[in-house]
Specification:
The complex is a heterodimer. By secondary structure, chain A is an all-alpha fold. Chain A contains 9 helices and no strands. Classes of the chains: A mainly alpha, B alpha+beta.
Amino acid sequence: MNSMLTLILALAVLMVLVGGHQGLRSFFGLMVNAIVLLVSVILMAGGFNPVIVGVIAAVVILAATIFLSSADVQVAGPAFVSALIVMFALVAVIIGVLTISHTAGFGAEDGEELEGMSTALGVSFPAIAMAAGLISTLGAVAEAAIAVAAGINELDVERDWQGILQMGREIIGTAINTLFFGFFGGFAGLFIWFAQLKYPLWMVLNDKIFVGELLDVLFSVIAVILTVPVTSWVVRQRTLGARKNIK
Amino acid sequence: MPKGLVALVTKKRIMIILVAGIAAILATVTFLRHDAFLYHTPVAQVTAIVKVTKTSEVDSYNNRDQQIHQVVRVRMLNTNRRGQTIRMGNDYVRSQALDFPLRPGQQVFLTKSKDGYQLNDMKRDAVLGGLLVATIVLLILFAGKHALVTMVSIALNTAVFFWGVHYELSLQDRGPWILVGVLAVVFTILTVLFVIGVRPVAVAISLSTLLATGLAVALGYGLMQATGYKGIHLETVKYVTQNPQLIFFAQVVIGSLGAVLDETSDISVAVFQLPAGGKERFMAGMAIGRAVMGPLIAVLFMIFMADTFIETVMWLRNNNTIAYTVSWVMGLGFTQSLISAFGIVLAVPITSGLAALLGRRHAA
C-alpha cells in the first residue's frame, strides 16, 4: 500500500481516537486545506495572478481552519473576523518587503533542483513568493485568534482586562517558539549546507534563500503579535456592543 | 490609582516605546545601508538605469517570457575604487526565477574579473535587519516582559542549533542520530526552563513533549518502513547530499518540537491548577488538547507546504503531470506535516495522563 495514504489514514484514526467528533472535524479541515493549497498552486501555474489566488485561498483556509476546529460560534466568529483583518494588513507588509528584498524564485543553492528545467516560464515568481509568504502565516494567525477568542470568553472583558492582556502576552511567547522551531525544522538541510561549505556570516545574512525564509518567519511572528490585540479588540467591541443592545 | 491615570501612564509608555522603536528601525536600516566598509567583496549602489533592451523568448513548452538587458550606472561603496562610478550590464528574465531587475538606490555585491565588474547578488542585510528590528519593537510593545524571555530563549536555541549543525559534520555512523536525540532533549529543557521556570509542572511538560515526539517519529518510521516508502521520496530533501533519511527525521523532530511544547504546556499548566480527582483532571486535559490540536497542526502544515510553492509551479510549467509533481515536489512537505501531526495528536492523551498523575502526587 502507498506509504503516504497509510500515513494519512493513521492520522485520521489517531485524531478520531483522541478527539472524537471534534478530531474528525479537525482532520476534515486539514484535508480541505490540502485541497485548497493544491488547487491554488495549480491556478498559479495556470497563469492566474498569484497574489489574488493567494488572498482568496487565504480566506478559505482561515474559514476552514477556524470554523472546523472550533465548535463554538462565540469563539469562531470573532476569531475569523480578526484573522481577516490581520491578513489584509499582512498582505500590505508582505508586498512592500518582498518588492525590495528580491528573494523570489530560486537561489544559488537550488542548482541541483533546476537541472534540465526551463526557468523562463512567464509566471511572476515575485508574486508567487508573496502568495507563499501570506499562506505560510495563516496557521499561526488562525491558532492565535482562536486561542485569544476562547481565552477571553472565559473572562470578563470589562473587569478582567489586565488578565486578558497577560494571556495575550503568553500566547505570543509560545507561538513564536512554535514558529522558530518550524523554521529550523524546515531548513535544517540548508544550514548543514552552509556549515559544510563554510559560508561566512555575511554571506548567510545576504543569501537569497536564507533571507527569504527568515522574512517569511518574521511575517508569521508579526502576524501573531498583531492577531492578539486585534482579536482582543474585536471580542471587546462585540461584547460591549451586545451589552449596550440589551440595556 | 484611579483608572484614568493608569490609562495615561500606559499610553505615555506606549508612545515612548513607539518613538524609540521607530528611531531604532531607522538607525538599523541607515547603518546597514552604510556598512559597505565591513565587507571585503565589492559593494555598489545603483544610481541610474541607462538603457533597457527587451527580447521575447519562447521555451520548448511554449512558455512566453522576456529576456531583459539593463545597462546601469553604479557607484562603488568600498574597496580602493570607492566613490567611482562604473557602468555595467544586468540580464534578467521578466518572471525572475533566478535573477532580478536593478533599480536606482539598490545596493549590490559585485565580482571583479578581467573584463571589469559583474553583478554577483543583491545586498539584503538592510531589509532583513529592518524587518527584524520592527518585529522586536512590536514584540516589546505587545508582549512586555515576555518579549525579553522569548528573545533570550530563541537566541539560546539558535546557538544550540548552530553548534549542533557544525558538530554533526564531524560525526559518523550512528553519531548524527544520537545528536538529533540529544538536541531534542536540550531544546525542550531550555525552552521549558525559560517559558515555565523550575516548577513541578515543567517535568510533566518536558517528559510528555519528548515522549510524544519520540512516539510520533517511531510511528512514522514504522509505517513508512512497513509500506516500503512507496510514493515517498526521501532523496528529495532539499540541500542534502548525504543521508537524506537522517536529515528528514531531524527536520521532523525539530520542526514539531515548538508546536508540541506549546500544546503540552497549555494542557499541563491548566491541569495542574485543577483541584479535582485524577479522572476529572485527565478529562479536562483531553478537552483542552482536542481544541488546540487542529489549529496547531495547521500552523506547521502551512509553513511546510508554502515552501514547496515555487518548485511546484516550475514543475507544472515544465509540462509535468499534477500527480507526478505532487508526489515528487509537495510530497515530502506533506509527509513532514503528517508525522509532526502524529506528535501533536499523541501529545494530548500523554500530557493529560502525565499531568494528572504528577500533579496529584505533587498535591499530596
